[in-house]
Design brief:
With about 120 residues, the chain is α+β, with helices and mostly antiparallel strands. The chain has a single domain, classed as Glycoprotein, Type 4 Pilin (2-Layer Sandwich). It contains 2 helices and 4 strands, in the order ααββββ. A 4-stranded antiparallel beta sheet has the order 1-2-3-4, with helices on one face.
């Protein structure tokens, strides 16, 4: 009976940690999509007077593994912001529900960029 109790306690501690690990691991899907979108924005801007929309720059509306939707809420002649918003099961990652990347290469929130 003691063994069962110990296993139960260990499982109660380990499972939430595992879930957090999985959610943090899936953030790489957003980071990859944002980095690729930034490259496509720069490529588009090289031959156009402004940065582009999703369609203009050829940016996919979803991340490679479909854990995030991608939008370009800001695009001007001198700046852009690309945003990845969690969808489906990834919405449990409330700390990084939305991750943005701007032209300067700054991720917001910075703690979601995997450099903390």
């Amino acid at each position: 009976m003691i063994v069962v109790a110990i296993i139960g306690i260990l499982a109660a501690i380990a499972y939430p940690s595992y879930q957090d690990y999985v959610l943090r691991g899936k953030r790489s899907d957003a980071l990859a999509a944002l980095s690729q979108a930034a490259q496509l924005q720069e490529k588009y801007r090289a031959s156009n007077p402004t940065y582009g929309t999703l369609a203009q720059a050829g940016i996919s509306a979803t991340s490679p593994d479909n854990y995030y939707s991608i939008t370009v809420p800001t695009n001007t002649a001198t700046d852009y912001t690309i945003t990845a918003t969690a969808v489906g099961s990834q919405t449990a990652d409330t700390a990084c529900l939305t991750i943005s990347l701007n032209r300067a290469g700054t991720f917001t929130p910075a703690s979601c960029a995997g450099r903390n």
